[in-house]
Design goal:
globular, single chain, 23% strand, seven-stranded mixed beta sheet, 10 helices
């Protein structure tokens, strides 16, 4: 097998440039950027490093093949050409999932069935067997069909990379860890920064800020699907974990302050920051936004936003209060994510810069105030 593999990392729309920079830092080669994903090349050690260290990637996929298919026969033959035996052992499980958009082959169950059949035929010929028990480690095959172009991937991650392991508990409307990490990067949080979140919820912004400032690998405390694969030596994962831990900067002067009106959210944030190993850097108190006092540093927040008319009116009133207590300038920049199209009107200040982001399926803007 060629030691150089092609990887693809999906990410939140709007964070492609942040992820590209992260991949450059960990040593990715021949990096290409498309909407919602960044591709690069490297060996198995880079697969491990990407899973452990990337903060804005959703998962790390090995790109096995790209080809055109308008018929099931073309799909079958395209998959059958892939050297799956380089990754999948005779006892390994290889389930199939994926999606199709604007393509002749639009039935997902049929595409799954054809891809599975082609994979079985390929592996039958290589292993000289007529039956696969699939009791071994999972090698999740993923397909994406867009305008009749088929991409076949192998997922090295398993559970999505936003599952860092520290947020076993969350409040009703948490922001995803990977999106929070991207916003923290855009807010230029550094090792000597002070970060404040007046609506800290389950503490995600504060924890992701501390992780970035101290250069803690975000997924150091969790396992990945590919750790069980026979094709990647255990030593690769061991050495990459050691390398990542060696880069942690305990001398960083970072500190963070969080507030929430809800006592339960305060408890959650404290609990989650302890699980993340950054509790000593974060102070969390119960407090209402109307009592908030800026004490210098970067404010990052995801203020509450309702779906019903009454809740939206309450949110708009909240934005007005925020505009009264937050006085963003060069020393006190503010980064606020909101789906409200007229946020600036209620906040009372036009943002210096706006970036379109998606929080799940909700289209939002990151309102950036830094002048």
């Amino acid at each position: 097998m060629n030691n150089k593999l092609k990887f693809t990392c999906p990410c939140h729309f709007g964070l492609e440039s942040v992820l590209k920079f992260e991949i450059t830092k960990i040593g990715g080669e021949n990096i290409t950027v498309r909407d919602g994903r960044v591709s690069f090349e490297g060996g198995f050690e880079l697969a491990a490093r990407a899973n452990i260290c990337l903060s804005t990637a959703e998962r790390v996929l090995i790109e096995l093949s790209e080809f055109r298919a308008e018929t099931f026969e073309e799909l079958f033959q395209g998959v059958k050409k892939i050297p799956l035996e380089d990754f999948i052992g005779i006892k390994d499980a290889f389930p199939v999932k994926g999606h199709s958009l604007n393509s002749e082959l639009h039935s997902i169950p049929d595409c799954q069935s054809i891809i599975k059949k082609a994979a079985v035929e390929r592996l039958k010929a290589k292993y000289h067997t007529g039956w696969f028990e699939e009791t071994g480690p999972v090698h999740q095959l993923q397909f994406s069909i867009l305008k009749n172009i088929v991409n076949i991937y192998l997922d090295t991650t398993g559970i999505g990379l936003h599952k860092r392991g520290y947020r076993r508990n969350s409040n009703a409307a948490p922001i995803k860890e990977t999106l929070a990490a991207g916003i923290i990067d855009l807010a230029r949080v550094r090792k000597d920064s002070t970060v404040c979140d007046p609506f800290c919820g389950s503490g995600t912004f504060l924890i992701e800020s501390a992780i970035k400032a101290l250069n803690i690998p975000p997924c150091i405390n969790r396992k990945f699907a590919a750790e069980k694969w026979n094709c990647i030596p255990d030593e690769v994962w061991r050495s990459e974990r050691q390398r990542a831990i060696a880069g942690v900067d305990k001398s960083a002067e970072f500190k963070a302050l969080g507030f929430d009106i809800d006592e339960e959210c305060v408890r959650l944030s404290v609990d989650n920051s302890a699980k993340a190993g950054v509790k000593s850097r974060i102070r969390i108190e119960q407090g209402d936004i109307s009592d908030f006092k800026q004490t210098g540093g970067i404010t990052v927040c995801n203020p509450p936003y309702g779906e019903r008319m009454l809740e939206i009116r309450e949110a708009e009133q909240l934005y007005k209060v925020m505009g009264e207590v937050l006085k963003p300038d060069r020393e006190n920049p503010c980064y606020i994510i909101s789906p409200h199209e007229e946020f600036e009107k209620f906040f009372g200040k036009k943002a210096d810069k706006k970036r379109k982001l998606y929080n799940g399926m909700i289209k939002c803007n990151l309102y950036m105030y830094f002048k």
